């Protein structure tokens, strides 16, 4: 899907023509000219939805201000410079083992329950880093055999870390945040422990 769609996004923009959903959480897919703008808006939207369920977190707000002002621009802005500028490709948007199966008797994979949008292809790989989702680094390495790492390649692991933050349980704890899964925390409001993981 990534290889066949790259370079075919409407007007070369990031987003989608309708809202899509992760569970019952809508994604604001309004078109943007830059990947950085789309990514920041998406993460902030997930955070607002989680805050509506569990209330405000002053600690999270303090940590995310420098994240949005310094970390994200440092990692995503270089993707849009020079000859190797990224092009949006169509993503499934919610890849994890619960949305992947094998067609009976064929050994062919099938993916379902998409939350699609046009984005940086590496965004899809955020869930691969999450041990709970059983995909793992071997899937990541195999993917990169077929689709090269974007430049600057030295930033790949850091980009993958911030991409895992959007909706997947990830290494938010490495940023000293108490929110580890915006999506699950929002989708399961009665389970207060998710916010504290």
From TrEMBL:
It holds the Pfam family Fructosamin_kin. It is an enzyme of class 2 (transferase). One of its GO terms (molecular function) is protein-ribulosamine 3-kinase activity. Its EC number is 2.7.1.172. It catalyses: N(6)-D-ribulosyl-L-lysyl-[protein] + ATP = N(6)-(3-O-phospho-D-ribulosyl)-L-lysyl-[protein] + ADP + H(+). Signal peptide: none annotated. It comes from the Eukaryota. This is protein-ribulosamine 3-kinase.
